[in-house]
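Objective 1b of the project was to move from sequence-level analysis to a structural picture of ligand recognition. The entry below was assembled by the postdoctoral researcher (A.K.) and checked by the PI before modelling. It contains the amino acid sequence of the target and the SMILES of the bound compound, zinc ion.
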Amino acid sequence: MEPTQPNPLVCPHCQQIDQVSKVTAVVSGGVSAGVYAAPMRRGGYAALPGASQTAQSMRLAAPKEPVFRPSINVWVIVIASIVFVILSLSFANWSIDIVLITLVCALIVWLIWLSRRDKRRRALFLTHHPQWEQAMAKWNALYYCGRCDGVFLPDGASGFVPIDQMGAFLYS
Ligand SMILES: [Zn+2]
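Corresponding predicted holo structure:
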């Protein structure tokens, strides 16, 4: 299944091709037996940690996708609604006291704090996700040389990258 174009796939470090394999193939188990990889929604594979997984495939694993999980979710809305209903009933009974007012203020402050945190996290996510998509596109095109323990792109321009610097290279 490997493309049969020898020139671009020659390792820029040792100038050989015999130990070169596609990184996606190494991670998905095409080369190293016993690797378990999970296909990701946006393509590529994320190597899952496991006893049978080789250290090599873990080091070559795809960059982790940034996720955004809003703090203001259905549970927050349910809790806030219940508290508001209880407090409203109390207000209806004219039993307004300092404890109730404090509770209402605390609830409002909590919701404002959550929504501001969501806003910050969402902005961070919107910055990081396109960077991750670019890193994934690079990672999908990477080749690994087993002799030199490093990766390279078959574009002939990026050069050889030691495996320890792969993360920085993908995000460069
Ligand atoms: Zn090499």
